[in-house]
Amino acid sequence: MIQQILIAWDGSPPARYALDIAIDFARRYEAELVAASVAHSPAHAETEGDRAESVDAARQYLEETLNAVADRAERVGVPLEHVIIEGDNPAEDLLHYAHEHGIDLIVVGHHRNRRPGRFLLHGLAERMIAHAEMPVVVVSDEPDD
Amino acid sequence: MQLEPQRILVAITGTVEGQRALEHGIRLAELIGAALIGLVVEGRLPTAPATVAEVDDAHRAREPFFDTITTLAVDQAAEHGIELEIHRRPGPFVRAVCREAHASVVDLVIIGRPRSILGLPRVASLTHRLDCPLLLTP
């Protein structure tokens, strides 16, 4: 049923919440778990050198933040693979990866607040929900009140 | 936050999307041995009923629909050996789902993905108000 699960990993607190849920789903389903990240350069990178430098910095940040919490998966015997995609549109890049690799379930973190923005889904989660061809689990972090 | 879903709430709407959500809920409950609760939200009554009789008529007119989708869902779950507990609550949808999720202390809510982007604010409102993860089936 569910053999491959993708967790959208950007190192943020909501992503850490989502990782715990993804690990649990992977353990329950006995599925493979892939943490997929998009290393993208900021729009203001003017040269190829700037771009490469910022992508490298993003890559390093994503690896370090995931390594810091990867033991959560190890503790319950869930192998966690980290894939870093270079691209400029995280939602589209992750969905493309999910489609190409036969991902069965996507888990995405979402930051919530109590302010008027509660009627909007922000960025990645919204695009994932709107366009994914597979089930998407949205995991919200604690409200910031 | 409970990480291992022991109690799952699935919204039963009688739509194609709701059917997919129910199927996913049944499979998940079957796989992990979780309790499955089906929520039927009875939407708003006619916006401008003139009399109490009109409200009663509206109630009576939609009873067969809710009875049918409830029976079908329970039968479908039973085919997989799952006992589906049905709760019928008055709408609006988001408020009913959140209240039921809280009251039934569920660990996961499953709903069908809205048919158009116009339904995304409802999803956003749910994600902001629920204390547990929300699973949307395509």
What do these coordinates show?
The complex is a heterodimer of chains A (145) and B (138). With 145 residues, chain A is of the alpha/beta class. Chain A has one domain (4-120): HUPs (Rossmann fold, 3-Layer(aba) Sandwich). Chain A is 44% helix and 21% strand. The radius of gyration of chain A is 15 Å and the shape is globular. Chain B has one domain (7-137): Rossmann fold. Chain B has four helices and five strands. A five-stranded parallel beta sheet of chain B has the order 3-2-1-4-5, sandwiched between helices. Classes of the chains: A alpha/beta (145), B alpha/beta (138). Chain A binds chain B through residues 1, 17, 20-21, 23-24, 28-29, 110, 112-114, 118-121, 125-126, 129-130, 132-140, 143, and chain B through 1, 3-5, 24, 27, 31-32, 113, 117, 120-121, 123-125, 127-130, 133-138. Strand 5 of chain A pairs antiparallel with strand 5 of chain B, so a sheet runs across the interface.
